[in-house]
Structure prediction request, 247 residues.
Amino acid sequence: MAFVKKTLSRFRSMYMKRFIFRCLCFGAALALLIFCPEQYDVMYGFNFFKGFSFFHILWVIWLIDMALQLMPCRKYLPIGSQKFLSECFNPFRDFSVARLKDYVLKCKKDTLIVGSVWALLTASIGALYFLGVIDSKVLLLITVAFYVFDLVCVLFWCPFRAWFMKNRCCTTCRIFNWDHMMMFSPIVFVPGFYTWSLCLCGVIVLAVWEISFALHPERFWEGSNEALKCRSCTDRLCGERNCTADI
Prediction:
């Protein structure tokens, strides 16, 4: 049997490298928790301005990531993250308005479920913190773990897609840009410039995404946006080279 080499798309290759980087970040954060826990003090109050730590680097990276999500940046971000922008909307001729309304209704139900599940998870983590089972340093470590898990969802397996959203792939994901808000949710319990600045920026990205959906749901649905169909896809984050799953 002839061996066929399966090459990765540019975006999937890029995201695999990002995944490796994030795993290294988690390893570094775990090592610091064990051997140099004072690095975590950046979280508290205005300690952010009193020194330099590994977490300052992550703070800058996270802010850059969020800033990129708010502007046209197809060179570095897949269309799943950019579809709220008018630049990524390619109107599908004669799409069904009735089906678009059905899609919006389904999205409302799906996002309510996902939001409730994540709120429950965040509340559970907060309860463990306030009961003294875990400390604030572990909350930041959990955030870094979520930073890794975000790309597990993109590259390997996504529980939100499998259990709740039932969407075809990341390109059509209704909650693609919820990632930072979800990622930073554990550290909302720790008052400080570091924690609340990240949480605030995550909420801003979420708000822009949700307002865009409310005003222009047609940009998010593959039935009205030709750019989201498999035949138009060049990102291939799903890893499939010849997907024919168009509706």
Residues 1-6 have pLDDT under 50 and may be disordered. Helices lie at 10-35, 54-69, 79-82, 97-130, 136-155, 159-165, 179-184, 193-215. The two ends are 34 Å apart (CA to CA). The first helix runs from residue 10 to 35.
